[in-house]
Amino acid sequence: MKIRIIQVGKTKDSYMREGIEEFIKRLNPYVKLEIVTLKEEMASKAFTKEHCKEMEGVEILKVLERDDEVGTIVALDEHGKEFTSVEFSKFLGKFFDQGQRINFIIGGPYGLAENVRKKANLLCAFSKMTFTHQMIRLFLLEQIYRGVSIIKGKEYHNE
């Protein structure tokens, strides 16, 4: 399975980076993982939050368009579909043996531009609660690992 995570902005907190690195290490035997980190735009007198989202959206679409094989695009969005972990593992399972790429897109602090949301095959929400874009990176990697563990019958997920 090939997974690409396109994220806006660096992960600043060391404890978050450590968790992310741990799940990347756990996923390595099962998934070809690529993480693309794009520049985060900050609102100012010159740029509104909406303008920042649009500028980030242009860069996200450039990443998606640079490959012949784009694959499935899943945008993490608070208004998206919510999954249980088992449902998410079934979603991942569709791609596991096919070798098709799944792109997960995590916007910056202001969210995703509308053109990115429209380009997505699926909008996915992790909760009705709001999390920082840095936290959701760790949550996403943990859920991908949990999903792969369910697919592989490993002892990580307890039902």
Descriptive report:
The protein has 159 residues and is of the alpha/beta class. It has one domain: Alpha/beta knot, CATH 3.40.1280.10. 43% of the residues lie in helices and 22% in strands. The chain has helices at 14-27, 49-65, 85-96, 114-119, 133-152; strands at residues 2-8, 32-38, 72-82, 101-106, 122-125. Strands 2-1-4-3-5 form a 5-stranded parallel sheet, sandwiched between helices. Helix 1 (14-27) links the parallel strand 1 and strand 2 (32-38). Helix 1 (14-27) packs parallel to helix 5 (133-152) and helix 3 packs across helix 5 (133-152). It starts with a strand and ends in a 7-residue tail after the last helix. The model has no long low-confidence stretch (mean pLDDT 92).
The overall average pLDDT, rounded, is 92
Instruction: Report helical residue fraction.
Output: 40-55%
- Residue windows where pLDDT falls under 50 for at least 5 positions: none
Return the structural class.
Answer: alpha/beta
Enumerate the strands of the largest sheet in spatial order, edge to edge or round the barrel.
2-1-4-3-5
Shape: globular
Distance between the termini: 24 Å
Rg from C-alpha positions? Answer: 15 Å
β-strand number: 5
**Could you describe the largest sheet, including whether it forms a barrel?**
5 strands, parallel
Q: What is the third-level CATH name, the topology? A: Alpha/beta knot
Give the CATH H-level superfamily: SPOUT methyltransferase, trefoil knot domain
Order of helices and strands: EHEHEHEHEH
- CATH first level: which class? Alpha Beta
